[in-house]
Amino acid sequence: MDIFLNYLPAFCSIASLLTLITLSVIDFRTWILPDWLNLILAILGITFHASTSFFFMPPSGLFFGAAAGAGLLYLIRMGGNYYYKQDTLGLGDVKLLGAAGLWLGVEGVIMAMTLGAFAGLIHGIIVAVYRGIKEKSRPNLNRLMIPAGPGFCLGILVIGIWQYANYVME
Questions:
Q1: Are residues 114 and 152 in contact, defined by beta-carbon separation less than 8 angstroms?
Q2: pLDDT tens, residue by residue, 92-118
Q3: Which of 82, 107, 110, 126 has an alpha carbon 20 to 30 Å from 64's alpha carbon atom?
Q4: What is the span of the domain harbouring residue 49?
Q5: How many domains does the chain have?
Q6: Nearest alpha-carbon partner for 96 in 70, 72, 118, 60
């Protein structure tokens, strides 16, 4: 049993990587981030921290990270929906950042959100340029719609690796 507990954090890390990849692929194909996968990511985050005896972050850090990730993205969603008069971010994205907050804490989830939004911007520019070339017109960024989840997943992955680099190296 003791050997299982020693490998549990590594298992959680690898499983979360696979979950982020799966979420990205599904979002690219369907524009949906399934709740059950966001829940798995959240459970893996809680399990990871519990199995390390909350070495990296106290339980309150998990709670505040989840609240910051989901809360901030929900406010951004509300503002975008009000401005554009349509859904701008799905609730799956909000839940994804809530689950990420359980892994990364407040500071980490905000950095992941920022990096993910930047990745989404780059993705959007590439899509607009591609469509412009394909249609032999100028790239059009007005009302360009792309799934946000893959960018956020990339941000979560990069910040997670950065935040836990010492643990990963061991």
A1: no
A2: 999 999 999 999 999 999 999 999 999
A3: 82
A4: 2-169
A5: 1
A6: 70
At a CB cut-off of 8 Å and minimum separation 6, what does 131 contact? 139, 140
Instruction: Give the whole-angstrom CA distance, residue 75 versus residue 67.
Output: 12
Give the tokens for residue 91: 């609730």
Alpha carbons 96 and 26: distance in angstroms, whole number:
13
Q: What is the pLDDT of residues 64-73, one digit of tens each?
A: 999 999 999 9
Q: How far apart are CA 155 and CA 149, in angstroms?
A: 10
What angle in degrees, to the nearest 10, is found between the helix axes of 2-30 and 91-135? 50
CA atoms within 13 A on the CB side of 41: 32
Are 8 and 51 in contact by the 8 Å Cβ rule? The answer is yes
What are the angstrom distances between the C-alpha of 141 and each of 33, 35, 89?
Answer: 24, 30, 17
- With contact defined as beta carbons under 8 Å apart, do 112 and 90 qualify? no
The answer to whether residues 2 and 31 touch, using CB atoms and an 8 Å cutoff, is no
Q: Please say whether the beta carbons of 20 and 157 come within 8 A.
A: yes
What gap in Å lies between CA 131 and CA 73, rounded to an integer?
28
